[in-house]
């Protein structure tokens, strides 16, 4: 009974025939220059699928600032191991379909934030940019 409910849920979400999130991340890295950390991206995609939220390592800008972070400085001085994520992405240049998006840093290793982001809608499409919003690559559905 439990498995049939899960299968029905996956079918209703369009994920029953979706590839694994690991294979989606690996396939994306064949296209992206520079590539992303496939393991981190896999964890993010799985978390968004399962909970609709980013993994716990992500903090919104206002929470990071409340902990002492200032834009342009290293987040890890205030919040070691954390990354910025969960804030609204405005899509001001209209490069993505109209929707309400959030964004999160990818591959953050301390210091200044890099150019890589995942831009996502909890129930809709997800995109990767490795050049700070100049171009976007859509992320295939995964499970």
From TrEMBL:
GO CC term (a single one): extracellular region
Signal peptide limits: 1-18
Keyword Hydrolase among record annotations: yes
Chief place where the protein resides: secreted
EC number: 3.1.27.-
Record's keyword terms, sorted: Endonuclease, Hydrolase, Nuclease, Secreted, Signal
Compartment list: Secreted
Classification via InterPro entries: Barnase, N1-like, Ribonuclease/ribotoxin
Active site: 103 (proton acceptor), 132 (proton donor)
Family label: Belongs to the ribonuclease N1/T1 family.
Protein name: Ribonuclease
Organism: Iodobacter fluviatilis
């Amino acid at each position: 009974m439990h498995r049939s409910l899960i299968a029905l849920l996956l079918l209703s979400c369009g994920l029953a025939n979706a590839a694994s999130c690991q294979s989606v991340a690996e396939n994306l890295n064949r296209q992206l220059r520079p590539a992303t950390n496939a393991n981190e991206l896999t964890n993010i995609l799985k978390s968004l699928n399962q909970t609709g939220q980013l993994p716990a390592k992500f903090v919104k800008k206002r929470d990071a600032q409340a902990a002492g972070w200032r834009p342009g400085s290293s987040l890890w001085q205030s919040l070691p191991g954390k990354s910025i994520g969960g804030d609204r992405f405005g899509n001001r240049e209209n490069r993505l379909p109209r929707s309400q998006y959030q964004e999160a840093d990818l591959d953050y290793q301390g210091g200044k934030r890099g150019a890589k982001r995942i831009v996502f809608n909890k129930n809709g499409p997800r995109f990767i940019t490795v050049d700070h919003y100049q171009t976007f690559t859509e992320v295939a559905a995964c499970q």
